[in-house]
Specification:
The chain starts with a helix and ends with a helix. The longest helix is centred in the C-terminal third of the chain and has 27 residues. By secondary structure, the chain is an all-alpha fold. It has one domain. The chain is globular and about 40 Å long.
């Protein structure tokens, strides 16, 4: 049984962008998958606590692969996954709207923070994937 610290570490690993067999090796990759499969509800609760709400910035969200985790548990908790995907997509809509409003306010491209265009593209791609997962 994974404790809270292990659950959080596993989630960060899964959504960090390097959760692949090649990056982790077969044993470590399989160990994480087994822990998630054994306690999907604990992982879903931790996921919701860590990644939904205003504590995580749009910049950080643009670097995370949250749908990777949702795909892992989609067969075990399809309704919950659809709900979380929908909530995340709405959260991204808000973040993208705030960013769009700032751009519309007349900030010149050269005055925007470096990488903001890349961040917006990544966030939009993640938002579209979450919308597909939510069935929207």
């Amino acid at each position: 049984m994974a404790d809270d610290q292990q659950v959080h570490a596993d989630l960060r690993l899964i959504v960090g962008g390097n959760f692949t067999l090649d990056a982790l090796g077969p044993q470590r990759h399989q160990d994480v998958l087994r822990r998630v499969a054994a306690q999907p509800e604990a992982y879903l609760r931790a996921f919701e606590s860590l990644f939904l709400g205003s504590r995580v910035s749009a910049q950080e969200h643009s670097k995370l692969h949250l749908s990777m985790f949702l795909k892992l548990v989609s067969n075990q908790a399809p309704d919950r996954v659809r709900s979380l995907a929908s909530r995340l997509a709405t959260q991204y809509d808000t973040a993208m709207g705030v960013r769009d409003d700032a751009q519309d306010a007349g900030s010149a491209p050269e005055a925007r923070p470096e990488g903001s265009s890349t961040m917006a593209k990544r966030l939009d791609a993640r938002r579209r994937e979450l919308r597909r997962m939510a069935g929207a």
